Amino acid sequence: MDGNPRSDETPDTQAPTETEVEAAAGTQPESVQDGEVARLQAELEAARRRVNELARGLQDLTKDREEFKQRITRERERMLDVERGNVALTLLEAIDELDLVLNSTQQDTSPVVQGVRMIRDSLLSKAQATGIERIQVVGRPYDPNVAEAADMEITPVEGDDQKVVAEFRAGYRLKDRIIRPARVKVARYVAPAQA
């Protein structure tokens, strides 16, 4: 009456004992159990292969994404360099014109010439600040990748053959790209005539 079961009463259902479970398991033929285990192992192996395949696919996708981001960044930098080079060409033409004025008035020390020289130097330093550098070619072997041969000078010195002896127009590069080749005079060795 107190709500607790009495020990003399037996419940209607009892948990099966270990021996009953073993007996019930023994009722299935052993070959059916082996077949079921083999099927479950095959399903487990197939699931593992699928998980590995998906993991490799995810790794490949992540790698491709990173490579794409790097490629886009490189392309953007290259395009910016091309645009910087295009803007620089206009600036370099102005510097060339100022150089022509200064070369024609080398002996003149008037304030106007000094002002032109200051403007030219300022423009050149601003161009160099953007990464543009002047290519030094005079006295070096002629390289058609960096300079255009505009004239030739005969030289009797064999060691001076194919060397740049004068520069008509300066050449410039931006990083590893030539934005304007130099225009130069190249020495050509000709053996002296024997008498």
TrEMBL record:
A Gene Ontology cellular-component term: cytoplasm
Ranges for region Disordered: 1-36
Coiled coil: 37-78
Keyword Cytoplasm: yes
Localization (cell): Cytoplasm
GO biological process, one term: protein folding
Location, primary (coarse class): cytoplasm
InterPro entries (alphabetical): GrpE, GrpE_CC, GrpE_head
One MF term in the entry's GO annotations: unfolded protein binding
Pfam families given in the database record: GrpE
Keyword Hydrolase: no
UniProt record similarity statement: Belongs to the GrpE family.
Function: Participates actively in the response to hyperosmotic and heat shock by preventing the aggregation of stress-denatured proteins, in association with DnaK and GrpE. It is the nucleotide exchange factor for DnaK and may function as a thermosensor. Unfolded proteins bind initially to DnaJ; upon interaction with the DnaJ-bound protein, DnaK hydrolyzes its bound ATP, resulting in the formation of a stable complex. GrpE releases ADP from DnaK; ATP binding to DnaK triggers the release of the substrate protein, thus completing the reaction cycle.
SUBUNIT field: Homodimer.
Record-given protein name: Protein GrpE
Native species: Corallococcus interemptor
Organismal lineage: Bacteria, Pseudomonadati, Myxococcota, Myxococcia, Myxococcales
